[in-house]
Amino acid sequence: MNKLFVLIPLAASMCFGARIGVLKNTGSCPGEQVLIDLDVEDSNNHTGVKNKTDPNPPGITLGSHAKFTYCVLNVNSLTRVPYSYFVLRLGNKCPTGSYAFSHHHDTEDSRNRNGHSGNISPSVVNSNATLEYCYVPKNDSSKVKYPVDIKYGVFSRGSSSISKIAHSEIFIDDEDSNNSNSDEFHFSASDLVSQDIDHSLQYPEAQAIYNFMMDIYSLLYSSPDDLHNTTYHVIKWTGTANDLKKSSVVEESVPMVAAVPTAPAVKGLNRSLVSVELKSAGDVKVSVVGINGAVIANVTEKNLQPGDHQIKWNSGMIPSGRYIVKIEQNGMVDAKNVILK
Predict the structure, then answer these.
(1) Using one digit for the tens of pLDDT, what is the confidence trace for 84-114?
(2) How far apart are CA 60 and CA 83, in angstroms?
(3) Do 225 and 294 touch, CB atoms closer than 8 A?
(4) CB distance 127 to 40 below 8 Å
(5) Average pLDDT over every residue of 288-292
(6) pLDDT (tens digit, 9 = 90+) per residue, 262-274?
(7) Mean of the pLDDT values across residues 143-151?
(8) 20 to 30 A Cα–Cα from 272, which one of 40, 93, 126, 212?
């Protein structure tokens, strides 16, 4: 399976509202509603609720299809709570406090009946589905028990220390043959240094990227080694509104903001070349970093023009394995998780 990891800054710290989708739990949506319908594996289909703690997940119906119903909200920020969670991204950027990523479902090859209703952009649903999300890392010191109104659900494992949260484990049986599920991460490495990580590390960005990816994997898969199907974790609040301390501020009429410029992109790595794509001219610095945060190599190229480039580097006696390739240009950063053979 080919997994591509692209990290692009989405101006998450800007103060404008962002359009998101939260799973519909109770009542009707206050405004716009969108539906995503995935026609998953027809043969030997095991789609269903694996964890029977809550057999009725918010906004999700399962069978030969997996149908997700979202209420659309405009918010300035997403509240951090003592557990990580994510929501559907429905605009060019994620709200403050969250980071964008996408998950690609390789669904049924024959007689495919995927579909959607409403404006789900930037997600794309056709013969397969690429769904865009905003991820919020946990904050152990937060006193907020639940990040949204009780009318909504979010993708999360929740916290065993907080009562009145019901957790569902949703198994999506994606296409068995020629499976090409994959994930892309759109957050900037430099943004992650401010998170709750070990700042004694020499290269905290690399460790933060790794920690974020592993946490998102825990919300999407049964294990990092089994990526051919999807296991969504979903929670909802089972108490009353009075049980909750007011958390996220929902604003229904916040103006949207245009997309930010595209960052340079790392396309690939082999023993002699780093492939990159540039959207603007300027000096470029490329770093190859180990998962443990150690910098293996640094290469600087001057005055490169927009377009595809092959940058030479010497892998020497570096062992095969997983590395992070980071590119910096004009104040923008991109990184890609790669396998060096």
Answers:
(1) 999 999 988 888 888 898 888 776 666 667 7
(2) 21
(3) no
(4) no
(5) 76
(6) 568 888 888 899 9
(7) 90
(8) 212
